[in-house]
Structures are given as C-alpha cells and as structure tokens.
Amino acid sequence: MRAILAALLLLVPLGQAAAEESRIRIGAIDAYLAVPPKIDKPAVALLIAGSGSTDHDGNGPKLKPATLKKLSDDLIAHGIATLRYDKRGAGGWKKEFGKPEDFRFKDFVDDAASLMDYLRGSGRFSKLAVVGHSEGGLVAILTAGRVPVDRLVLLATSARKQGDLLKAQLAKQLPPEKLEPIAKAVDAIMAGQIVDPPPSGLQIAPAMQPGIASAFTEDPVDPLKKIDVPTLIVAGGRDRQLARLDFLALTAADFAAQSLWLPDMNHMLVDVTDEADDVASYNQAERPLDPALIEAVANFIEETQPHDGHEAR
Fold first, then answer.
1. Which of 168, 223, 301, 306 has the highest local Cβ count within 10 Å?
2. Residue 143's pLDDT is what?
3. In this structure, are residues 47 and 71 in contact, taking their beta carbons and an 8 Å threshold?
4. Strand order in the sheet with 20-26
5. Could you tell me what percentage of the chain is helix, strand and coil, using 3-state DSSP and rounding each to the nearest 5?
6. Residue 92: which pLDDT band, with cuts at 50, 70 and 90?
C-alpha cells in the first residue's frame, strides 16, 4: 500500500504516435503506461518480462529482442492499454531494493502486485489482465493468486520449477561429465544448501544462492490450480527452451483455460524456420511477433470471441 501511495505519475510523453505513453514510478519500480487514444476506459495488460536483468522493452544486457515493446505496440493497436516495467536489476541494482543478496523471488511478485494495485486504483481501466512471458509467467501466476485480476495470460511459460528446467536445458548442451557437478549443485541449492565453491559453469556466488534458491524452487502448477481466473496459455513448437510437456502440464493444471499451440513460434514469440533463424531472432527487435498470438491475446483480454473450451492443438 505504501508503494501505491508513493506512486508518482511523472507524465513524461515519449513521443509515441499510436499511444499516449507516460513514465510512472511505483515505489522504486520504473514503469511505462501506454494508453490507446480516443478509448474511454480501455482494458489494460501488465506485461511481465522473463528471466534476467530485463527492462521494460523486454531487452537485457546482451539479448535485445524487444519482445515486450512489440507486444505492447500490438495490443495498443487492438485498443488495449499496457503497463510494462524495468525488473529489479535492469540498468543496475537500486539501493531502494536493499542488498542484492537479500533478494527473494517473492520480491518480483511484490512488484507486480503493486503495479496491479496501482492500475486498479487508478479507475481508468475496464478490466485488468496480467501477461507473463517465460519466467514472467510464473510471476504472473503468483500475482494472480495474490491480487484481483480479470485475465491471466501465460506466454512460453514453464510448468516446472526453474531449477529443474535449468538442469533439463543444460542436459541438451553439456556432456554428462560436465553436467553432473552442475546438476548436483543445482539440487543442493534447491535443498537450501550453500555450494562453495560453485562448480565451473554455474557461477552463482554463495551469498546469492539463497535468493537463487527461492527462484529455483517456486512451483507454477500448484498455484495455477488454485486460481479462479480466466486463463490463456500459449506456447510454440520451435521453442528450444521449453518442451511441449510444459504446455500440456499447464493446460492440465487448469482445465478451463483456453490454450493455443503455434507450431512455428519460438521462445521470443516470433515465427522461425530453423535453429539458426531461432538464434538470430533473439536480437531482432524489428521482427514481428506471431500474428496468431497477438489476435488470441487481444481477443481473450477483450472477450471479442466467446470461450469455446477448445483443446490444445
């Protein structure tokens, strides 16, 4: 509540022709509110980025796909407002966040919940959606379990704990002799132990391991089962970071959810043709998102088509 009361609407126009975009601050979080013009009380979507030090556009220090910026622009074109924000750590760690070693995964949820409370308290919007991409999907699930939301959208979201997902991803990249010490260290960190020194290939400082453990051990499935919110789950067949089983496990956890499987879409929510094209897309800010994804998300938020209970394809 204090973060909401401390919200400062800075009203800095960013020159975007298609939308009225302003920079706001909720507590220590810098966020960007884009509102479509000439629409009275539009729906609004809080866009939550994936893992890493990801900014409000969905860009990190090395990879710059601009996933959230493109998603925001596409939703604005459908008459839906968006709020996207810099995650903790994006652009450097602020002293307002406390010591980095004291970070816990729930802090991400606290931030998202504060932003949702701000949107609801503003009285400017007809309905509130929370849209999470990748790790942001886990944050979205936990946020929807904490504060009132009208729609939940999960994009390329894992159904596994992040520690287990990391081990599965590394198993595809490393030979067994290199994977074994890393997997053991991940298991130890998940069990609450401190691994000092960490093995080669898993450079997580001992002081940071409790915070990492809090992320590694969060389970998406059980919280999703407890949420009574209309949900849309979307994943792609060319996503090399997630398996189809994650998509199927999420849809099984919420039988009432709408679901969409896009065979050519990758983890960056764009269509690709092969592995080289997939790798290139992680730094192609100009590359459009899958159009079927945009239509599905916009229709779901706005309810322009009825829920037909269709099964995952």
1. 301
2. 98
3. yes
4. 8-9, 20-26, 29-35, 81-85, 44-48, 128-133, 151-155, 231-236, 258-262
5. 40, 15, 45
6. confident
State the pTM of this model: 0.91
Residues 48-78 have pLDDT tens digits of 999 989 999 999 999 999 999 999 999 999 9
Q: Which amino acid is at 106?
A: K
Q: Across the strands, what pairs with 271?
A: 265
Q: Is 297 exposed, middle or buried (0-12, 13-18, 19+ CB in 10 A)?
A: buried
Which sequence spans correspond to the domains of the chain?
Answer: 2-160+219-302, 162-217
3-state secondary structure 36-98: CCCCCCCCEEEEECCCCCCCCCCCCCCCCCCHHHHHHHHHHHCCCEEEEECCCECCECCHHHC
The predicted structure's pLDDT at residue 116: 98
Q: List all residues 6 or more positions away from 280 whose beta carbon is below 8 Å from its beta carbon.
A: none
Q: Which long-range contacts (CB under 8 A, 24 or more apart) does 68-75 make?
A: 68/133, 69/285, 70/285, 70/288, 70/289, 71/47, 71/131, 71/133, 71/269, 71/289, 71/294, 71/297, 72/34, 72/47, 73/18, 73/19, 74/289, 74/294, 74/298, 75/45, 75/294, 75/297, 75/298, 75/301
Angle value at C-alpha 282, between 276 and 246, nearest 5 degrees:
90
Q: Please, how many CA atoms are within 13 Å of residue 69, restricted to the half-sphere of its CB?
A: 16
Architecture of domain 2-160+219-302: 3-Layer(aba) Sandwich (3.40)
Q: Which two tokens stand for residue 312?
A: 């995952």
Report the DSSP beta bridge partners of residue 44.
81, 128
